[in-house]
Amino acid sequence: GQNIDQPTEMTATEGAIVQINCTYQTSGFNGLFWYQQHAGEAPTFLSYNVLDGLEEKGRFSSFLSRSKGYSYLLLKELQMKDSASYLCAVMDSNYQLIWGAGTKLIIKP
Amino acid sequence: IAGITQAPTSQILAAGRRMTLRCTQDMRHNAMYWYRQDLGLGLRLIHYSNTAGTTGKGEVPDGYSVSRANTDDFPLTLASAVPSQTSVYFCASSDGGGSYNEQFFGPGTRLTVL
Asked: Which of A40, A63, A73, B19 is the most exposed place for a label (fewest CB within 10 A)?
């Protein structure tokens, strides 16, 4: 079966750095996405990785290792507005997204 | 303003009733999707459409039907609602056509079936 694993919840301090991990086992791989979802709102796109390595976009970076079936999302200089759920999703061989359950990130002052 | 709209925002429905959730996008995207999101679970694909006139089944299609008569609209119908269909439903769209397939989401419909 297809499976995406990420921690259920993480806590971090404002101004700090946090790394959210995602491991996956899917039938085929056509890219990995990270989305942010604030409580009661729709998911919004953060990043896309299809090749191994690090993609940086401002305070957010995403890393991919296809051989390990592993990705992480790195958030720097945390702000209170970063409190949200972060969803990892993998595009499988049928070009459908398989979603993890999400990691709820709590930022404390 | 470009984007995806969904209606209704929320609904309480008696079991056995028929319900259609509406979804409209004005980005001229080819592909559209319906997901449900339940606490502790990832988004699960119900049905999708890669282009107007075609539809496909996702991971959890039972009890749901869709149609895609034109590019903009993708309604989801529950023929006879059951309590297990209580969920938040998100419609999404994308340009399609390959692996880079960022999906844009509507605001969601919160459905409660009693």
From this structure: A40
